[in-house]
Amino acid sequence: MKVLIVGSGGREHAIAWKVAQSERVDKIYCAPGNAGIEEYAECVNIGAMEFDKLTEFAVAEGIDLTVVGMDDPLVGGIVNAFEEKGLRVFGPRQLAAMIEGSKAFSKDLMKKYHIPTAAYENFDDPQKALEYLETAKMPIVLKADGLALGKGVLICNTLEEAKDGVKTIMEDKQFGSAGNRMVIEEFMTGREVSVLCFCDGTHVVPMTSAQDHKRAEDGDQGLNTGGMGTFSPSPFYTPEIAAFCEENIYKPTMAAMKAEGRDFVGILFVGLMLTEDGPKVLEYNARFGDPEAQVVLPRMKTDIIDVFEACIDGRLDEIQLEFEDNAAVCVVLASAGYPVKYDKGFVIDGLDTFKEHDGYYCFHAGTKRTEAGIVTNGGRVLGVTAKGSDLKEARANAYKATEWVRFDNKYMRHDIGKAIDEA
What we know:
Catalytic activity: 5-phospho-beta-D-ribosylamine + glycine + ATP = N(1)-(5-phospho-beta-D-ribosyl)glycinamide + ADP + phosphate + H(+)
Radius of gyration: 21 Å
GO molecular function, one term: ATP binding
Number of strands: 22
Domain ATP-grasp: 107-313
Number of domains: 4
CATH architecture of the largest domain: 2-Layer Sandwich
Protein name: Phosphoribosylamine--glycine ligase
Family: Belongs to the GARS family.
Helix content: 25-40%
């Protein structure tokens, strides 16, 4: 098989690495890719939103399967564009990708079909949002409706903060057109868990659990980011909770999307809050999480191509999904100043060390190959992942491996998976 992967981040590197393990695959392309993905794939200089060029390339090269990693092209309708050309593609169609593309849509869906989530209201008028806040209980959560690179969520502890948040999202448009509408929802407390699910439109098969760390600084302080690190599995996601979520969240979500004429085929990412009142949905995404993919895929034993194809063909119920009985931790190495302002172009040393150690991986997020070598080319630069027999060992291994990598302005959190020690 020839496989094309669409995207350029750490998630796409993890997907390429996993696809490369399949004996069914002869050749991998990635558009546009990055310096790390080059190890497994031929990188093609076509942007993820250039649908015409991507489909032309897929036809010309005889691509057997395209895997879309990123949210923007999915919400933009890339799957529809590929299917119109008779090409096999893994990911939700545009109508189904709206589950991530609009938080207002996904909240209304959950309300209509009685899927547990936080109480909320939708607003497209900032003045109405401000009036609502005067009667609301603090703390409160403000969410830009559209795609915002994982950053369009503000947790506000006071009324003043919340009012400033409305201005930031809806008037200053800090998250662009994503802030044309806004969701205001109750603040939930509990443990957060991420569960990625394979879906074929009818059947849903959850993968192993993970937990992300969104805030930029230790102790869950600072601004929201695209993710500063993850661990898998979550010790808080017990078999009892998993069974509850499957019956009350995952299956009902699939059924709800089907009932709405939006059959969901691809990866459904469910962000959960384990509250005192039981698990509730924080958010849905329509693709692999980043950096969740970097800890979930290394633990997956099943050939991922078999799973992708079963999803496309509506026979996911025939797949036995298996994961290793171990743990993985990913620590993101970022550029100092991320997610606001940071410099690029620093040479990265020590990457070859990972080739000498089994169970250690370095997934490239923001890197570029130059004459000087591989250099930093983004806010999140690398995802250093390590496995271990349990979470404590995996965490120790991951932090040990972060010392192998050197570049100017290197920044990371030092408490990824610290909750493990408290469990």
